[in-house]
Design a protein that fits this description.
Structural class: alpha/beta
CATH architecture: Alpha-Beta Barrel
Number of helices: 11
Helix content: 40-55%
CATH class: Alpha Beta
Number of domains: 1
Number of strands: 8
Strand content: 5-15%
Radius of gyration: 18 Å
């Protein structure tokens, strides 16, 4: 079967879905309904985001392992440097391995004080995602994914710096990247070109977030530094008072973005589902033959 990077290199596109760990049993029930509705699409993998520390981290590990054990899906586990020593990170990686999880998204994570605050590393921990990539690769035969930022990381001085950081992650052992969500395909293709100019043949999978709630996606965009093009804002503003119409326009926008990306040669699509399945299913149906 090979690694994800090997399958992409052989010409197989990757289609994947991302979930976040539920905070309680009711949220977990919603998550599992979404997983079961998306499972028939046979994605390349599904990923579960990581809450640093405490019960959220434990639920992340448990849910990710349950996906490996109870579904036909391949899980990818997120791991961040936030609030953890090297020893604790090794323990989490070991827990994932024991649960049958062999692919890890290695991320620095948001500053402990929240987005926009200075980054503060754990005294016995790691400072950068590239350090976490090295740590995970040292611990076993894991495939490692990393984050990429078409519109620039909020803390990055410029887009060229972002590309150099991504190249360093590839050199450290990452074999694929998934981008932060974005709205303009030219931002994605420009990032891919900058990376190619530095040498690494790292597949970069675009991250897609279908808009279903205008206020929510604007908040996410502001936190991540992702600009919303005026044309996108105008189309959403025209239906802002009708939640069903907002979802319909959000699906249209995501479908158009996905089609442009696939037509331009993107190696697949990664959907940020927000633990819901309807919008993603609708985008898939709209794309039709493009995802065959």
């Amino acid at each position: 079967m090979g690694t994800l990077a090997q399958r992409i290199a052989a010409g197989t596109r990757s289609y994947s879905f991302e979930f976040f760990p539920p905070k309680d049993d009711a949220g977990e029930a919603v998550l599992w309904r979404a997983i079961r509705r998306l499972e028939p699409l046979s994605p390349s993998f599904v990923s579960v985001t990581y809450g640093a520390g405490g019960s959220t981290r434990d639920r992340t590990i448990r849910v990710t392992a349950a996906i490996a054990e109870q579904t036909t899906l391949t899980p990818v586990a997120h791991l961040t440097c936030v609030g953890a020593s090297r020893a604790e990170l090794r323990q989490v990686v070991g827990a994932y391995a024991a649960g049958g999880v062999h692919t890890i998204m290695a991320l620095r994570g948001d500053p402990p004080g929240g987005p926009g605050q200075p980054w503060v590393a754990h005294p016995g921990g790691l400072d950068h995602a590239v350090d976490l990539v090295r740590l995970v690769r040292e611990l076993g035969a894991f495939e490692v994914g990393v984050a990429a930022f078409p519109d620039g990381h909020p803390e990055s001085p410029d887009l060229g710096h972002d590309a150099r950081v991504l190249a360093a992650k590839a050199e450290a052992g990452a074999s694929f990247a998934i981008t932060q969500f974005f709205f303009d395909p030219t931002s994605y293709f420009a990032l891919v070109d900058r990376l190619a100019g530095l040498g690494p043949g790292l597949p970069v999978i675009p991250g897609i977030m279908p808009v279903t709630d205008i206020r929510q996606v604007k908040r996410f965009a502001a936190l991540s530094g992702t600009p919303m093009p005026p044309a996108v804002q105008d189309r959403l503003a025209a239906v802002a008072d009708d939640p069903a119409a907002v979802s319909a326009v959000g699906v249209e926008l995501a479908t158009e973005l996905c089609a442009a990306l696939l037509d331009g040669g993107a190696p697949g699509l990664h959907f940020y589902t927000l633990n819901r399945s309807t919008a993603t299913l609708e985008v898939f149906a709209n794309l039709g033959a493009l995802i065959r």
